[in-house]
Design brief:
This protein is α/β, with parallel strands linked by helices and 710 residues long. The two termini are 48 Å apart.
């Protein structure tokens, strides 16, 4: 039986977990306690979860966040999303081949009276923005309820093993996301006025300004005075041949499997997209011992932080800008990827195709805000605000700060004496949301005496923890106090290495000429297993762009507390290359092969609607025939009518309109469903799914009847 679990990780502990027996197609498997079906199947080497009823296409995961339904399986006779449903002892899991058939019902189901819970503020989402808002509301004594669909708080923070950028004071810069999640959760749980519902899904906002919530299989009505939407974002899809093959999925899904569930879902992967999400996911793959054979970005430069890109380049990951994916290859599952260079008109340049053997393709081409609850609340007159990605796509550091601002604003709107939001908060929020600024040529020191840090960050981004950690105050930011670039001033460096240890971008090294002007020592940050490097090893050192500088012997490896589970590796280097050393290679660069066939993909055969397998050709023919209403397209082709509720394909359909020369103002948008998440109809009648009714919920017994319009 295959076991694809991570047994050692440089940052994450590998806890002992009680095995939970279940079966897949009658074959006995084991899961870990609390694990989802999807993660358990991946851990046992299963990536194909079923076949589509329309054309028999194999189905697997895509988002692993409950937003689509591509991972649906049959568990104990009922269709469930494998990425959200936990494995229960003895559960019988089968692939969904075709349309599900509901089992016969025996006996009478558990029911409970549908209760109405009244709160001053309902927060949708327990991620960085929601938790930060809850802290401000808790300080103000506002009766608050946080609803989150996961088993723990933190949102995407629980997937982030890297250190955060920004400033220490504003957003815990220099601290790993997983640890920030724990800090925020502990603080939130300290407020008696803040209640938390986990494993709970917000279903809809109704016309009577009430909100439907499914909590652990039971339906509740929440009546808030204010709705604060901090539901984050969902990943965008991309159209290309093979885009729905098992093995093609979102970068967030990959991080969920690797960093939350410690499952090793790939041996060799390729990343599509050079934003921070794609760059960071590739780095997380390397930390998990997964080979990253390449990354491509359609723009001429990666849109993410340059320090993230440089970090990958000097670890041996080839990065191809002005390139796009041509197709995914594979019969049933991914076996390779073909990419090609594109010209200024975004057309593939013939003869530039490159083929990489891989078993996984990560799609990291942007995010869409989960803002449907906000829009519906405003339509029905329920006071509502948004924070984090639900308001504007940005980094988690910005989400934390906008959450603080919205929490204070909501508290003030509810009559709490909290004062105005400090003006500097708004400025800090804007800085943290800033896109990368100017890039300069790396300025390396020419001196060959003393000891000093060398900064390999050459792009303006919101980050300054190195200035805060220096005990001698010898590091300053030139220009803006957060967005500028760090600079060493004076002669006060004592070689403490703290700036090397804290840097989120692994972009600081320490060069020490005190023992030798010709062969100084260089201290390099290293975030991989301690077993992978030791004193006496010979390593390949590279500059910030990934160019090889030479092979050097490791003279010391240590893990100081300031490094927070990272290692500091010391080498002795010739003086002419010492300041240029920025990192250590962890894998040999992969060389692409020429594909057997070349040319652009046949666009008409590409799948636009994943749920209903609607092709670009079907939609283009209707658009060319004069259809301008996306609801008309839906009625004819079923695009947007699938189980995901039209969360994935609308942006792709709008792209088709643009490609056909139809102005956006002529297109009627798809009408959203009244329920934003799937729910068994019995829930509205008080039917309890699974366990007996919850008895310990503080709530008001409601004699009034919910009259919310749908």
């Amino acid at each position: 039986m295959a076991d694809h679990r991570i047994l050692e990780h440089p940052i994450l502990p590998v806890p002992e977990a009680r095995p939970v027996p279940f079966s897949w197609q009658g074959q006995p498997f084991e899961a870990r306690e609390g694990e989802t079906i999807a993660s358990a199947l991946f851990a046992n080497g299963v990536r194909t979860f079923g076949h589509h009823h329309k054309d028999g296409a194999p189905q697997g995961i895509f988002c692993a966040n409950g937003q689509c339904a591509q991972c649906t399986v049959i568990a104990d006779g009922l269709p469930v999303k494998a990425c959200m449903a936990p494995v229960r002892p003895g559960m019988a899991v089968e692939p969904l081949d075709g349309l599900p058939v509901l089992p016969d019902v025996e006996g009478h189901p558990h029911t409970h009276p549908i209760e109405t819970v009244e709160v001053e503020c309902l927060i949708v989402g327990g991620g960085p923005a929601g938790l930060s808002a809850a802290i401000e509301l808790g300080k103000a004594g506002v009766r608050t309820l946080i609803v989150d669909d996961k088993h723990r708080l933190g949102g995407k923070l629980v997937l982030q093993t890297h250190k955060f950028f920004g400033s220490i004071e504003a957003c815990h810069a220099g601290t790993r996301g997983i640890d920030i999640a724990t800090r925020l959760e502990q603080e939130v749980r300290g407020f008696e006025h803040v209640r938390i519902w986990l494993n709970s899904t917000v279903l809809a906002v109704f016309s009577d300004r009430r909100v439907g919530v499914l909590r652990e299989g039971q339906y509740f009505i929440v009546r808030p005075d204010v709705l604060l939407v901090a539901a984050g974002a969902r990943e965008k899809s991309l159209v290309f041949p093979g885009n729905t093959l098992p093995g093609v999925y979102g970068a967030g899904a990959f991080q969920t499997l690797v960093n939350r569930d410690l499952v090793r879902p790939a041996e060799r992967l390729f990343v599509i997209g050079g934003g921070n999400v794609g760059l960071i996911a590739a780095y997380h793959a390397l930390q998990a011992g997964i080979a990253v054979v390449g990354l491509c970005e359609a723009l001429s430069e990666c849109g993410g932080y340059k320090v993230h890109k440089d970090k990958l380049a000097r670890m041996g990951v080839p990065i191809y800008t002005s390139h796009t994916i041509v197709r995914a290859e594979g019969d049933g599952e991914v076996s390779g990827v073909v990419i090609a260079q594109i010209d200024r008109n975004w057309k593939v340049v013939p003869g530039t195709e490159k083929c990489f053997e891989c078993d996984t393709i990560l799609v990291a081409v942007g995010l869409d805000p989960v803002n449907e609850f906000l829009e519906k609340a405003r339509e029905f007159g329920l006071p509502a605000v948004a924070a984090g990605d639900a308001e504007e796509i940005a980094e988690a550091s910005a989400a934390m700060f906008t959450g603080r601002i919205r929490g204070l604003e909501v508290a003030r709107s509810l009559g709490r004496d909290v004062g105005e939001v400090p003006p500097e908060w708004h400025r800090t929020a804007e800085v943290l949301k800033s896109r990368p600024g100017m890039t300069i040529t790396e300025d390396l020191p020419a001196t060959r005496e003393g000891v000093f840090p060398v900064f390999h960050c050459s792009q303006e981004i919101p980050c300054n923890p190195c200035t805060s950690i220096c005990p001698n105050h010898s590091i300053v930011i030139t220009g803006d106090e957060v967005m500028g670039l760090p600079e060493f001033v004076g002669e006060a460096c004592d070689g403490c290495e703290k700036c090397v240890a804290i840097c989120p971008g692994l972009a600081v090294t320490l060069v020490d000429y005190r023992k030798s002007a010709d062969h100084p020592t260089v201290v390099i940050p290293y975030e991989f297993s301690a077993r992978s490097i030791k004193q006496g090893d010979v390593v390949t050192v590279l500059d910030s762009e990934g160019a090889v500088l030479g092979n050097l012997e490791v003279t010391r490896v240590r893990a100081p507390r300031d490094a927070d589970r990272a290692l500091l590796v010391r080498v002795v280097a010739p003086a002419d290359i010492a300041p240029r050393i920025a990192g250590i290679r962890v894998q040999e660069p992969w060389e692409p092969a020429r594909p057997e066939t070349t040319g652009q993909p046949i666009e008409d055969h590409e799948i636009v609607c994943r749920c209903e397998r609607v092709t670009a050709r079907e939609l283009r023919e209707l658009i060319r025939a004069g259809v301008r209403d996306m609801n008309h397209l839906k009625a004819i082709t079923r695009c947007g009518m699938g189980a995901c509720g039209g969360k994935t394909c609308p942006s792709l359909i709008k792209r088709l309109f643009r490609e056909e020369g139809v102005p956006a103002e002529e297109v009627t948008d798809l009408t959203r469903r009244p329920l934003f998440m799937e729910v068994p109809l019995g829930a509205f009648a008080g039917v309890v799914q699974g366990e007996a009714p919850i008895k310990d919920v503080p709530r008001r017994h409601a004699t009034d009847v919910h009259e919310g319009g749908m």
